[in-house]
Amino acid sequence: MNTATLQLAAGPSPLWYATRAGGTVALVLLTATVVLGIASGGQYAPKRIARFEIAALHRNLSLLTLAFLVLHIVTAIADTFVHLTWWDAVLPFASSYRTLWLGLGTLAFDLLLAVLATSAIRLRLGVRRWKAVHWLSYACWPLALFHGAGTGTDTKLPLQLLLTAACTAAVVAAVWWRLYRAGPEHRTARIWGGVAALVLPMLLVAFLANGPLRAGWAQRADAVTTVPASPAADRLGGPR
Amino acid sequence: MSAAKRLSIDRIACAGRGVCAELFPERVDLDEWGYPVIPDPTVPEHLLGHARRAVAGCPVLALRLDPAPPER
Q1: Are residues B66 and B6 in contact, defined by beta-carbon separation less than 8 angstroms?
Q2: Assigned domain for A5 exists
Q3: Looking at the domain assignment, is residue A2 inside a domain?
Q4: Does ipTM surpass 0.90 in this model?
Q5: Average model confidence (pLDDT) across chain A
Q6: Is B43 helix (H, G, I), strand (E, B) or coil?
Q7: B9-63: CATH topology
Q8: Whole-angstrom Cα distance, residue A103 to residue A221?
Q9: Is A51 within 8 Å of B61 when comparing Cβ atoms?
Q10: CA of A35, closest CA in chain B: separation in Å?
């Protein structure tokens, strides 16, 4: 911890800034991707935008998300401020640094890779199998959100909070719109979707208020077990 | 030997989203309920790129591009 404090005193390296910026941009892009995906699924058809344009934007933004995630991950590993290995990029909950909060990001990255890989071979995979994997996006986004809130260096900044709130509001609104447009089928899935869209913002607010926004989060984030009533850990059944 | 192909629709899978008509209006029209109609299913070589994009763009993968049957 002493070396970390010394390095902090010397000022973080440009790599660390790139990590933070890359992560933030990736979250915004992922949010836009998810919202557009929900719009496609709900057959959003405005007069002036064609459906294939929404689909193309959805795909391109997802690839852009991946590009920023690569920047986010590579710079985080390359930076010496925290000690991370290449395995930490793909193996969730293996890092010594903020095991849970970093692990959520790793898990989100793995899910995104699965979604991207299956989308690349969608024509051969068939719709059913492709869609089964594509639904993991709904897990990927909240994982990424809580990863950002839990381990983000900038979580406390007003602008960052505003961004987090805007991303959450966008996805929650999209989900509600989608549920409003949905037909009578898949009742259970719709109920769970509605509940999740209702509970997630409350969880986020509760987590932010009890975690990152309270003093000493940097210390507590490393030791997951001492986090008082960590909602995300309960919800995800995270590691001990 | 012609490289032309044949466009076909899986009517059961088709959900009438209409993306194919947006991407490949040269061959795909929509009926009044938004389902595709293909008056001429043969796709000549110079239109293959558009056809492939439409096949890949179908949200439910109901569009297929097959080798054209031999001339009758």
Answers
A1: yes
A2: no
A3: no
A4: no
A5: 86
A6: strand
A7: Alpha-Beta Plaits (3.30.70)
A8: 12
A9: no
A10: 16
